Amino acid sequence: MAKKRTSGDKQILPKESYDFLKLVLETPSPSGFEQPVQRIIRKRMRPFADAVDTDVHGNVIVALNPKGSPRVMLAGHCDQIGLMVNYVDDNGYIFFSA
User: Fold this and answer.
1) How many Å apart are CA 19 and CA 44, to the nearest integer?
2) Which of 10, 62, 63, 77 is 20 to 30 Å apart from 45, CA to CA?
3) Contact 67/60 with Cβ under 8 angstroms?
4) What pLDDT, in 10s, does the model give residues 25-78?
5) CA 49 – CA 65 distance, rounded (Å)
């Protein structure tokens, strides 16, 4: 069994899940440039899914028993908010443009 990440005595995430989440969060994917993180999602979901597709809009669609009933959809975003830091003042305030 995979070792779990802990906070004191409380178990948080299995190591494999923690590593996946860390990789997703550390992969730059600002709006309009989500492909790097989408590749990670597709690779991670392939062993669990019956089908992994990308539609014409770039949405990653992962299906488990796609003809089943009832049908349930879980949706999420792969993009990150991208900001350009212009300046950090002496008090630590960050000035940026979107």
Assistant:
1) 11
2) 10
3) no
4) 999 998 889 999 999 999 999 999 999 999 888 889 999 998 999 888 888 888
5) 8
